[in-house]
Amino acid sequence: MTTLASAPLLEVVLELHWGKVSVDPTGGQSIQFSSDDQELFYGQFTGVARKRGFLNTERVLPPGVVAPHVALYRLRKSPNTFPALQIGLGMLSVNEGGAGYEWEQYRAACLNGLEILSEGHPSGLEALPPLRAVLKYRDAFPLHGRPGVAFIKDNLNISISVPKDLSEGELFAGEIDGCAVRFSRKLTDPVGVLSVGVQEALLNGSASVIMDTDVISDDSTFGGTFTIDKVLTWLDRAHEVQRLAFRSLIKPTFLKSME
Hints:
The protein is an alpha+beta fold. The chain has one domain. It contains six helices and eleven strands. The chain has a nine-stranded antiparallel sheet. Strands 2-3 form a two-stranded antiparallel ribbon. A hairpin with a 2-residue loop joins strand 10 (191-203) and strand 11 (206-217). Helix 2 (103-120) packs antiparallel against helix 5.
């Protein structure tokens, strides 16, 4: 698969979320986690990961703070390197930075992470009640002093407009700025949702346009059971959708400048 020579990729993340959904008499929902999730998972996972070279562990949340599906620990083979594995209450993520990203290498890192989860969770992978999988790509485009709306208009296949009365006249000055756009589309293969967000933001102190492209599984995608084969099959298809979305959102001339 072709990788862009000047790809704007900041990070790619695969997340798995699990937990048992409980419905109370009023119809309210909550997510329940096993004692294995809350007590034994972190230590056993870390021990298995260390055998595979993930020797550096750091706590992401402050001591005493735990939140469902939020990373609690980050594991790396050495400080500030990728891939990184993150684990938390009912979640695993496999994170890769943009520098040097190659799909096949990242897919292999995801397989490694799934194998560690399968061995490193006391209940085993297939006993975890699946909620969703998410494949996230985040791209960044430095503005170099340009207004964000002008950059989006020139380089992305996204239209932004405001009424004439709010863009002209003596009441208003300068360019339209502070743009943020988000939309989603239902997917049929894989069943789920494509979510796209584009916004202006500061990145390391520099104004940029950030584009998030997320593929989110349906709650029935895995048929009630995570397996390594099921997750990798979903991951491959989700990557194809993300690749289509990226190349559709970028105008051809801008895309060619990255090759």
